[in-house]
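User: I'm putting together notes for a lab meeting next week and I want to include a structural view of one of the chains we've been expressing. I don't have a solved structure, so I'd like a prediction I can at least talk through. The sequence is below, exactly as it appears in our construct file.
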Amino acid sequence: MPLTPPQLDRIARSFALIADRPEDLRSSFDAEMARRGATCPRPSARIVAELLDIASTAARTDGAAFMRDSADRASWGAEEHALLAAVADLCDYAWTRRLENDWAVLVACAVERAMASRVAA
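Assistant: Thanks for the context. Below is the predicted structure for the 121-residue chain, given as structure tokens.
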């Protein structure tokens, strides 16, 4: 399912939160995932790397344009698209409530939600 323009806009604004510190994203993400422990099924290393690449690259470019390109990647499967949708939902939640959430927490929550959905299916 393609992301909507409002979702893309909120994702782009979320990327702006880490624009000054993309190098910190991986360690923040890993720390948040470790904090969640056994309650969060671990996504594959490839998926984590892809998400981190999206976030760090988009932080240096136009987030919405990059996300549109990423969402259209022909090589992406259901897992990647589920993660993108979960990230979009969480960005939407954060921005509509004016929360200044850390991007790594949003991504970790997105991974947790997407992985839980996959396990339940």
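A couple of points you could mention at the meeting. The chain has a mean pLDDT of 59. The chain has one domain: 5-120.

User: Perfect, that's what I needed.
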